[in-house]
Predict the 3D structure of the following.
Amino acid sequence: MRWLKLFLALLLLPATAAVTGTVWELGRHLIFDGEGYRAISAWAFGGGYALWLVIFVLLPKPTRTYVLGHELTHAFWALLMGARVSGLKVSKSGGEVVTSKTNWFITLAPYFFPFYAMLFIGLFYLVHAFWSLTDQLWVLFFLVGLGWSFHMTFTLMILFSVGQPDVRSQGVLFSVVTIYLMNLLVIAVTATCLSPALHFRELAVGLGQNLAATYGWTLDKAVWLWQDAARRVRQTS
C-alpha cells in the first residue's frame, strides 16, 4: 500500500500545477474582475486572513483551540464515513480521538479541512435562516478569511515543526501532495458555493482545461526524455 501511495503521489504531481493555476484564476477573477459586493467580499476575506496573521505573530498562540478543531475534524469525517467515535482528549501538547475505522481521508482531513472557517459558515447561515444577513455577506467572508488563516498558519507550523504521525502513517510525499491539492480544492469549492458570481460548471471547465494542458505537457516532456535517453544509449553502444 505504501508503494501504491507513492506512485499515486507522483502521478498527482502535475495536478498540483493545474489546480494551483485554477485557484489563481478564480482569485484573480474575484478580486480584480469583481464589482460591488463581489470585490467587497474578496477584500473582506483578505482582511480577515491578514488580521489573523498579525494575531498569530504578535499574540500567544491558542494551541488548545487548534488541537480541539483538529480532533473534532477527525471525529466529524469519521462519523460521516460511518465510523464510531469515542475518547476525545484535548490538551495544549496534543490530542486524541478514537475511531472504529480510519482511512487516508479521515487521517489527513484536519490538514485540509478548515474546521473553524466551516463552523463560521454554518453559524452564519443558521442565523441567516431567522434574520436576513444578505447585506452583511462581507462579514461572512471576513470570518471565513480569519478561520482559513487560522487553519493555514497552524497547519504549516505543525507540519514543519513536528513529525506528525498522521503524515508519516500515509507516507510523506503522498500526504504533502494530498494536503496541498485538497486545500486548494476546498478553497475553490467553498468560494464557488459562497459567491453568486461563480458557477461550478465554469470551475469544472477551467480545471479540466488546466489538467489537460498540464498532463499533456508532462507526457510530451516524458516522451522527449525517453527518446533522448534512447538516442544517447544508441550513440554509446
Notes: Strands lie at 85-91, 94-99.
